[in-house]
Amino acid sequence: MTPTNDQFIYVIFGASGDLTKRKLIPALYSLYVLDLLPDKFAIMGASRSDYSDASFREVMIKAIHEFKEIEETKHIDRFIEKIFYTPVRFDETASYQKLKQRIEGIRNDFGISGNTIFYLSTPPALYGIIPGQLAAAGLNKEDDGWKRLIIEKPFGYDLESALLLRDTLLEQWDEEQLFRIDHYLGKETVQNLLVTRFSNGIFEPLWNRNFIHHVEITSSESIGVEKRGGYYDQSGALRDMVQNHLLQVAALTAMEPPSSLEPEAIRNEILKVFQSLRPIKYKDIEKVAIRGQYVASTIRGNVITGYREEEGVSTDSHTETYAAIKFYIDNWRWGGVPFYIRTGKRLPTRVNEVVIHFKPTPHFLFSQDTDCKSCNQLVIRIQPDEGILLKFGMKTPGAGFEVENVSMDFHYSELSSHRIPSAYERLIYDSIKGDSTLFARSEEVIQAWKFLMPVIDAWRNGKDVPLHGYPAGTWGPEHADDLIEGRNMTWRYPCKNLSEHGGYCEL
Questions:
Q1: 125 and 197: one domain?
Q2: Is 491 left (phi over 0), alpha (psi -120 to 50) or beta?
Q3: Is 330 a domain residue?
Q4: Burial track 11-22 (b if 16+ CB lie within 10 A, e otherwise)
Q5: Range of the domain at 436
Q6: CA within 13 Å, CB half, 380
Q7: Is the CB of residue 11 less than 8 Å from the CB of residue 46?
Q8: Is the domain of 256 the same as that of 346?
Q9: What pTM did the predictor assign?
Q10: What CATH code is carried by the domain that includes residue 73?
């Protein structure tokens, strides 16, 4: 990353919340320490809490010490002087006039240009209110510099609400001003999907239906819903993870080579993937989509609470904590290749990865294994133990031609001379530079909702659609294995360590 020369004011709505303390301010501090920010910039916190500049700075100093992503602390005093605070009542027009005056005052006092970023670290219910109030106060106008609006997921609750949010935002903001942030896409190894594919001549010729048997994408968590039961019970795994994070990863995996590395060139190819998703028919949902919900179990002597016993969760909840989907991308590259996505809570370990399963050899010289269980695999680990692993067959020592699967791997931790920035650090930096590559465009969001709505409707309205229980600490419902095409085929069972697999990892 190279330093940006654009002066700016970074306004964070919901500044008293957890995200600001844990991620946003520590990320901005890292960029400051790394000398990636201009000399002239300011950060403005805005929320309902009645902080002063001084009291807000004290809270942020504690947050930096507790959640800092870089060990250097000698710059905190200088950094903290650039942080300010203004109380805002989000639905009161007068509050935005005061905010405008405060922003203009800081600009004048410190000689900062009119470039401004507004980050909505707020509940989604405010996504339509705050941008409208900012526009009414004239804070969306770019006469004196660029204005950008950053919105956290979820981008709507379903297709109808996503369309309403899109239309509401575009009434007063241009699409180029909107940055829909998905921290998942800020992870270094997600971005490395593009590099792995398009900078290596050995992969791209094989990246198609002629050589790939299927593609598997996993995002598992070992924790439950913790204190987010009230929110999660209204969302579920499908909305929380599949609609945004995992479909975006699938698109990066499946997209055609872009004409350049310009943001629009890359996002155009992502959109084409979403437009090529084969529609899911209602009558096929039970065959291509599995939902589950974790139930109580005992792991190493510890009793793990079931989902319906979690705080804030309804005792008769049908919200899924596990979702697995099989789908197809109907284009020339991927025609007939199944893609599998799964995500869940209270699974054996925390793992996010993409697995490319290659087809078997056309003639089995060394094995009677014709079901691709021993086929070559390329594993791209997003987290933890970030890296890449390639599995292939080798002869075992001794007489005969016994073949054993071995792994050749690379771990990002081996790049000891390179620091891996956090996802928010990278995305905040991109928002300042105006690079929208890793931010979702409105058409992408709408297409993703259109694709998933048949499943959402079936799971919401179809009481006859099975909700499978699975013991906490297992890999989800056994029925999910039925999704995988091929005799004796199943999901990859990864462990925390990239090179280990095939068993039940410990929580």
A1: no
A2: beta
A3: yes
A4: bbbbbbbebbbe
A5: 185-483
A6: 22
A7: yes
A8: yes
A9: 0.89
A10: 3.40.50.720
Judgement on whether residues 207 and 288 belong to the same structural domain of the protein? yes
Query: Distance between CA atoms of 74 and 4, rounded to whole angstroms?
Result: 22
Q: Are residues 145 and 208 in the same domain?
A: no
User: In angstroms, how far is CA 9 from the centroid of its own chain?
Assistant: 26
Core vs surface per residue 184-218: b (16+ CB within 10 A) or e: bbbbbbbbbbbebbeeeeeeeeebeeeebbbbbbb
- The residue from 213, 214, 245, 501 that is catalytic is 245
212 lies in the same domain as 126: no
Q: Are 181 and 437 in contact (CB under 8 A)?
A: no
Residue 383 maps to which CATH number?
3.30.360.10
Query: Domain for residue 489, yes or no?
Result: no
What letter would DSSP give residue 297?
Answer: E
Q: How many CA atoms lie within 13 A of 142 on its CB side?
A: 10
Domain end call among 110, 134, 152? 152
Indicate whether 140 and 238 sit together in one domain: no
Asked if 230 and 351 sit in the same domain, the reply is yes
Strand 387-395 relative to strand 377-383, pairing? antiparallel
245 counts as catalytic = yes
Instruction: Report d(CA 429, CA 36) in Å as an integer.
Output: 8
Percentages (nearest 5) of helix, strand, coil residues in the chain: 35, 20, 40
Three-state SS letters, 186-248: HCHHHHHHHHHHHCCCCCHHHCCCCCEEEEEEEEECCCCCCCCHHHHCCCCHHHHHHHHHHHH
Residues 196 and 132 in one domain: no
Can you tell me which residue has the tokens 């809270």?
59
H-helix or E-strand containing 12?
strand 8-13
pLDDT per residue, tens digit, the chain (507 aa), is: 666 768 999 999 999 999 999 999 999 999 999 999 999 999 999 999 999 999 999 999 999 999 988 888 889 999 999 999 999 999 999 999 999 999 999 999 999 999 999 999 998 999 999 999 999 999 999 999 999 999 988 888 999 999 999 999 999 999 999 999 888 787 777 878 888 888 888 888 899 999 999 999 999 999 998 878 888 888 899 998 999 889 999 999 999 999 988 889 999 999 999 999 999 998 899 999 999 999 999 888 888 899 999 999 999 999 999 999 999 999 999 999 999 999 999 999 999 999 999 988 765 655 555 556 568 889 998 888 788 888 876 666 665 566 667 678 887 777 766 777 888 999 999 999 999 988 989 999 999 999 999 999 999 887 678 999 999 999 999 989 889 887 777 888 887 777 665 544 544
The residue type at 326: K
What CA–CA distance (Å, rounded) separates 333 from 326?
17
Could you tell me if residue 178 is inside a domain?
Answer: no
Number of separate domains in the chain: 2
Q: Is residue 258 part of a domain?
A: yes
